[in-house]
Write a structure and sequence with these properties.
With 181 residues, the chain is an alpha+beta fold. It has two domains: 19-74; 88-173, Alpha-Beta Plaits, CATH 3.30.70. It is built from four helices and four strands, in the order αααββαββ. The chain has helices at residues 20-74, 80-85, 90-99, 133-144; strands at residues 105-116, 121-130, 151-160, 165-173. The protein has a four-stranded antiparallel sheet with strand order 1-2-4-3, covered by helices on one side. It is elongated and about 105 Å long.
Length: 181
């Protein structure tokens, strides 16, 4: 083995690329800097999201303030717990309407045409098609079995010769008082 002797002064001698301690220090600085940048990015995204939601929430607040003012003017503040108790849970109503569908019947439209929050009354109009009239009748029977439906009535049905199906319209009325939905 040949060893070379370096006779250059210490300042002119080549330096080692990086020492392990220096490498650890630089890595820690980069990690801390990256964490600060990530925290800033998350904070900025959250701030922008809240800024976008602010006008929507302001409109909701204005609407609720108007309702509150109307209720104070008419003296209906005692009825708030009753209104909340009678509030219809539409997600449950729609899930039950879907669950009662027999095979060969499909819905094309569901509309709420009248709704009074004070009485929890309302009327749904269901439009759809079916392969047979008996399937539509079974669907109406399934709807009438729901405890919170006052009446389910077939209003109109006609044969669609182009698709060889029966199109129907059903009106569902909710009772004035009854089971909570």
């Amino acid at each position: 083995m040949k060893n070379k002797v370096n006779l250059l002064p210490k300042k002119l001698q080549p330096q080692a690329p990086l020492k392990l301690s220096r490498l650890c220090q630089l890595t820690m600085i980069v990690v801390v800097f990256a964490a600060i940048l990530m925290a800033y990015a998350v904070f900025s995204a959250d701030l922008n999201n809240k800024r976008e939601m602010l006008p929507v929430m302001q409109k909701e607040l204005d609407a609720l303030l108007l309702i509150g003012e109307r209720m104070q003017q008419t003296g209906d503040t005692n009825q708030v717990p009753g209104l909340l108790a009678n509030k219809i849970k539409w997600h449950q109503v729609l899930a039950d309407i879907k669950q009662g569908l027999p095979g060969g019947v499909w819905l094309t439209e569901v509309n709420l045409i009248e709704h009074n929050l004070r009485d929890a009354k309302g009327q749904l109009v269901i439009k759809g098609s079916g392969e047979r009239l008996s399937s539509i009748g079974l669907y109406i029977h399934n709807l009438q079995q729901l405890p919170y439906i006052g009446q389910a009535e077939l209003v109109n049905s006609r044969l669609n010769e182009q698709h060889d199906t029966m199109e129907f319209i059903i009106h569902i009325t909710f009772p004035e008082s009854g089971d909570e939905i």
